[in-house]
Every structure is written in C-alpha cells, then in structure tokens.
From TrEMBL:
The lineage of its organism: unclassified sequences, metagenomes, ecological metagenomes. Residues 282-293 have a biased composition (Basic residues). InterPro entries: Tnp_DDE_dom (IPR025668). Pfam families: DDE_Tnp_1_2 (PF13586). Coiled coil: none annotated. Residues 268-293 are annotated as: Disordered. Residues 243-292 form the Transposase DDE domain. This is Transposase DDE domain-containing protein.
Length: 293
C-alpha cells in the first residue's frame, strides 16, 4: 500500500482480473463492463480492441490533499473538540470536473486554479493556527511531513504568483511535491515538448570523461564553454587545440573567446559558406564523426 502511494504503477488487466484495478475502478475515466468498455460515451465491444491510458494516482496526494492530510495529523495530536472544515470532497470534485474534460478553455483552467489556490490558502490558515497551540509542547509533524508542508507552501507561492500576474513560468518552478528539485525543461521537440531531468556537462579527453557540471535547473549550456576550457587548462597546463562541440555552444561570444585563445572549433563558420577542398571536407567530417562516437 505504501508503494502505491509513492510510486508510479502500471496496471495490466480489467477490474475482474486485477485486484488493484478493481480497487480503483471508480477513479478511471474508462468504464468497464462484461466483455466491453466505454470511453467518452463510445462503447467498444470487439475482442481485438484494447485501451491504454495514463491516469492520476488516487493515492498520490497533490498539494491540496497533502495540506488536508497534515490538518488531520495535527488534529489527532491536538485537544481540539472539532476538526476544521476543509470541504475536501467539494475541492476534489471541482478538480475532477476540469481534469476529466478532454477540451478545456483557458477561462475554465484559470477558474479551476483560482478555486484550488483558495482551498490551499484556507488550509494553510488552519495549519498555522493549530501549530500555534504546540509552542510549549512536542511538535506534531515528523521531518517528512514538515518537508512536505514547506514544499506545498512554496508551490502555493509560485502558483499564486503566476496566477496573479497571468503568466506561465517562474524561477525554480516546482512540478513535483515528491521531487521538488526537478525542473521542467522546454525542448521544443515534436514528440516531447517538455522534459524532466538533470543537465550534465561532460568533457571527453584521451578516453577519460570528466563531469564539469550537474544541475537540475533549466539553463543554456552555451555558458559552460569558458568554464570547461579553463578547467582543461588548469589540469593540463594549456588550452586544447580543437574543441568538438555542438552548435548550441558556438555563440558569437564563445566563438570570439575561443578565437582569442587560438582554439579551433568544428562547427559551421558564420556568414556565407566558403568553398572547401576535398581534404578540408574530409578532415571536418572525421572530426565530426569523432565527436559523435
């Protein structure tokens, strides 16, 4: 049960053949019945038809649900006669009414975000007032629970800032309350427009790889050129003769900096392409292939 709460789960089989699917069948947007299933009002009953879909884990709480869980934890440790009212069922239904829509307008999304922010704001008020009761006693939250509280407070601050300013980005944006260090990286690819993960700057020399930078922030790699080249000089005592880099590193500033230090590069030169001899073409191709190895 703990793994279901904290991990992504891949389920195979219908609710009749899979106990976990049976447990969460009411949370699926797909409705199963005997020998058929219904999706968006269309029923599929052919034996060759199947379905695969990614859905929200109902046991994986978001920021609002974590704040509600923290309220429950503090209430159990307190002497209060009545638990604060959080309207969690209404809040959950408001979220699902928009999340399950196939086509959502910008106005509907903004209205849903405003509601969830207001629910969170009220929950934070309850949490602060209840925690004030424990100034003279033992703190009711464990380190993990307190960490989640800090994270969802920062998520609320970021989302409220973007909502008030009507923007869709902010510095150090948190996209996962379980991994707050992960940042969204917009790549602009057709298959995956946004990727999540760390950026690793690695230099290769004489078969040895050296990690120059590891960061979870979304930054432009072209700013690493000077630091990597200077690190090479500090190790070997001289600048490299040739730099085999991707085109993204070859900005005008980096080209000028490398030219001043007489470091050759393998990228395309700026301006109109010049005529090259077969030897120059062959040499450039070999260097390019060496970089791609």
């Amino acid at each position: 049960q703990d793994d279901l709460k904290s991990k992504c789960v891949i389920l195979f089989g219908r609710p009749e053949t899979n106990k976990i699917s049976q447990q969460f069948k009411d949370n699926f947007p797909i409705k199963f019945s005997e020998d058929k299933f219904t999706w968006q009002g269309i029923t599929y009953d052919q034996p060759t038809q199947g379905v695969a879909q990614i859905v929200e884990n109902p046991l994986d709480p978001d920021s609002r649900e974590w704040s509600e869980e923290i309220i429950d934890i503090i209430f159990e440790a307190s002497m209060l006669p009545k638990k604060p009212r959080t309207y969690r069922r209404v809040a959950r239904q408001d979220f699902l009414n928009v999340a399950k829509k196939k086509n959502k307008t910008a106005k509907e999304i903004r209205k849903a975000i405003r509601k969830q922010l207001n629910y969170l704001k009220r929950n934070f008020g309850y949490i602060d007032n209840m925690l004030d009761m424990f100034e003279q006693g033992a703190f009711p939250l464990t380190h993990t629970e307190q960490r989640y509280l800090w994270v969802i407070q920062e998520v609320y601050r970021q989302q409220n800032y973007m909502f008030r300013n009507n923007i869709h980005q902010c510095d150090h944006r948190i996209v996962s309350i379980h991994q707050p260090h992960v940042r969204p990286i917009v790549r602009g690819k057709a298959k995956t427009k946004v990727e999540f993960g760390s950026k690793l700057g690695v230099s290769l020399n004489c078969g040895y790889a050296r990690i120059g930078k590891l960061s979870w922030e979304a930054y432009n790699e072209c700013n690493d050129v000077e630091a990597e080249v200077e690190a090479y000089k500090s190790i070997h005592g001289h600048y490299p003769e040739t730099l085999l880099v991707d085109q993204i590193y070859l900005t005008q500033k980096n080209r000028q900096w490398l030219k001043e230090r007489e470091i050759a590069i393998t990228g395309k030169p700026l301006g109109r392409p010049k005529k090259e001899s077969p030897y120059e073409k062959s040499k450039k191709k070999k260097l390019k292939n060496k970089r791609n190895q």
